[in-house]
Amino acid sequence: MSDALGRYADSPLYSSLLCSSVATYAGPLSLGSARLTGLAGLAPLSPGHPLAMTMTLHDASATVTVVTDHAHRRLAARLPALVREEILAMRP
Q1: Closest C-alpha among 48, 42, 44 to residue 15
Q2: Residue 54, CA distances (Å) to 32, 34, 40, 65 in order
Q3: Do 39 and 29 contact (CB within 8 A), yes or no?
Q4: Which of 27, 25, 62, 60 is nearest to 41 (CA)?
Q5: How far apart are CA 84 and CA 88, in angstroms?
Q6: What are residue 75's phi and psi, to 5 degrees?
Q7: Among 5, 16, 67, 73, which is most buried by a count of CB atoms within 10 Å?
Q8: In 10 A of CB 53, how many CB atoms?
Q9: Which 3-state string (H, E, C) describes the chain?
Q10: CA 45 to CA 54: how far, in whole Å?
Q11: Mean pLDDT by groups of 10 residues along the chain of 92 residues
């Protein structure tokens, strides 16, 4: 059953845009003695899906990562800025 569900969710007929968001509530993160100021989870591209986006939330900040195939590479530069604009527009 899980194999069939995985094939269905990975199908370009199901979704052409895969988005995930991951919240980290672990407190301040560090790498060695350096405090991490951003964390980007690179979403893998699935067959038939030209675009994947991940938003990682940590403390009061968020990092948006966009991965595209070669044909859609211009989207990778524009989408994080567009997401930021939309988030700012929702603020009271």
Answers
A1: 48
A2: 25, 24, 8, 5
A3: yes
A4: 62
A5: 6
A6: -65, -35
A7: 67
A8: 20
A9: CHHHHHHHHCCCCCCCCEEEEEEECCCCCEECCEECCCCCCCCCCCCCCCEEEEEEEECCEEEEEEEECHHHHHHHHHHHHHHHHHHHHHCC
A10: 11
A11: 60 57 71 76 74 77 82 83 88 80
Distance CA 21, CA 10 (A): 18
The Cα 30–Cα 36 span in angstroms is 5
Query: What is the model's pLDDT at position 89?
Result: 92
Q: Which amino acid is at 49?
A: H
Instruction: Give the amino acid at 59.
Output: D
Q: What is the pTM of this model?
A: 0.57
CA 85 – CA 92 distance, rounded (Å): 14
